Amino acid sequence: MPFLNTSKLVTIERHIAEEGAAHPTSTGELSRLLRDLMLALRILARDVRRAGLNDVLGMTDSVNTHGERVKRLDLHANEVIYRAMDHGGHLCVMASEESDGLMRIPDEYKKGKYVLVFDPLDGSSNIDVNITIGTIFSIHKRVDPTLDTPGTLEDILQPGWKQVAAGYAMYGSSTVLVYSSGNGVDVFTFDPTIGEFLLTFEKLRIPKRGRIYSINSGNAHKWDQNLRDYVSWLLRPSDDGVRPYSLRYIGTMVADVHRTMYYGGIFMYPGDSSSPQGKLRLVYEVAPMAFLVEQAGGRASDGTRRILDIVPTALHQRIPCYLGSEEDVLEAERFLRGDR
Ligand code: AHM
Ligand code: MG
User: Fold this and answer.
1) pLDDT tens string 99-112
2) DSSP secondary-structure letter at 312?
3) What's the 281 CA to ligand 1 centre distance in angstroms?
4) Of 126, 260, 269, 284, best ligand 1 pocket probe by most atoms within 8 Å of the beta carbon
5) What is the pLDDT of residue 66?
6) CA-CA distance, 258 to 261, in Å (whole number)?
7) Fold classification of 12-201 (topology level)
8) What is the mean pLDDT of residues 210-219?
9) How far is the CA of 229 from the centre of ligand 2 (A)?
10) Which fold has domain 212-333?
11) pLDDT tier, 270 (very low <50, low <70, confident <90, very high otherwise)
12) Whose CA is nearest to atom 11 of ligand 1?
């Protein structure tokens, strides 16, 4: 698959504004919210690139040359996003992997009709060793958009199918932004020389089937028999040459799902005997990725249910996940039911 399928020179801000203008009832508020978020992502793209130079790597209690306490990069990312978003007047509340409770909009700022949840730096175990990391975000409308009061937990605990937009930035060999507002998935690549995300791939489609699976096999001793059977089956050569599958596992969900979006196959973080709900968080990790995967024509399941139908019951709730090519995820579900 080519990695550039458009000849248009379009920035993400223009793309979002045009999408908004196509809706007759649009007030432009979502576009302005996303413009603020893009600023945060551009700052993070810069900071991730300069991480080793900035003394921000690793868990540290040290003090930098300016006498400031040095923060972990993931906490820094959390703050950058909050500071870019708290005063715009578009949000009523935020939540993040790095903050225990709700992130409230300060009293002095207007409360808007949207809710933002995010994982500021996904793949934290890879930060210190220069391996790809990312930022995941998801936007909902608040339950009652006519209110101008602070948002509540109820506004955050909405099922994934109600997302207005979702995306991720991936800080890899280049920084890419993968975004959807329900009109398919578009990919933008950051050009650091002009400070803009430019459209590089329109309407990305996940192949119906892939030949790559992605899972932390170090946990295999804790998997149930059906999952073991599925992974063994993936590794058994088939007469048609489709199997065996290759294993790829980066350990950053953003990067493992990004590869799956282009090449197809399946990314899994299952439940196991010590963590029945797996590791990944429903609200700000799995639901936004599931939205993007479905928007690209793929399938996203917790093994038995469509991820986007699940109503969260807690902010930091975990959920098993199987994301990727439609046929691969269907096959995994069959095995997990014991139908194979
Ligand atoms: P994080 O949000 O603390 O970075 O944890 C989430 C990450 C995912 O990006 C990745 O898929 C998973 O944890 C890897 O976990 P493991 O090391 O157990 O395989
Ligand atoms: Mg994460």
Assistant:
1) 999 999 999 999 99
2) P
3) 10
4) 269
5) 47
6) 5
7) Fructose-1,6-Bisphosphatase; Chain A, domain 1 (3.30.540)
8) 98
9) 28
10) D-Maltodextrin-Binding Protein; domain 2 (3.40.190)
11) very high
12) 253
